[in-house]
Write a structure and sequence with these properties.
By secondary structure, the protein is mainly α. It has one domain (17-134). It is built from six helices and no strands. Helix 2 crosses helix 4. The longest helix is centred in the middle third of the chain and has 43 residues, at 44-86. The radius of gyration is 21 Å and the shape is elongated. It starts with 16 loop residues before the first helix and ends in an 11-residue tail after the last helix. 13% of the residues are buried.
Length: 145
């Protein structure tokens, strides 16, 4: 197994091949096929197949969303603990003002740039994307779902 490419703003988004290239296309095609079948051969059962296929598609998407949401909560906790150790008192007392999205963006910042970046985030209400763009020394997160 080769070395992982250094992570940065341009390449940090992660695709999950089994989900993005198999589950999503298969469920989408199944919904389309069920609709086509309903149009060509209308019946209560063909209608039920459309509803069932749509339900499976919703389950697939929501399962991924639930996993990402749980991961975001863990990142929020990790970053609050990390910031408590890295920030001096005036800024440390304002950690609670950071939104979940801001904490998720800050996870990529190295320890040395955290104090200034947190101050800037709080003062300018930077978005997750703006925070990630401002990071100079990227702290990779290869475990993101």
């Amino acid at each position: 197994m080769g070395e992982k490419a250094p992570q940065n703003f341009a390449n940090h988004v992660r695709l999950d091949p089994p989900f993005h290239f198999f589950v999503l296309p298969v469920t989408a095609l199944t919904v389309v096929a069920a609709i086509v079948h309903l149009v060509q051969r209308p019946s209560w059962f063909a209608g039920w197949l459309v509803i069932f296929a749509a339900g499976i598609a919703v389950v697939a998407v929501r399962a991924r969303q639930y996993a990402l949401r749980a991961q975001d909560r863990i990142i929020r906790l990790e970053e609050r603990l990390r910031l408590r150790g890295l920030l001096a008192d005036p800024v440390r007392l304002r950690i609670g003002e950071l939104s979940e999205a801001q904490l998720i963006g800050l996870r990529f910042a190295s320890g040395g740039e955290i104090p200034a970046l947190v101050r800037e985030t709080l003062d300018k209400q930077l978005s997750n994307k703006d925070i990630k763009k401002a990071v100079r020394n990227w702290r990779p997160d290869y475990w993101r779902m």
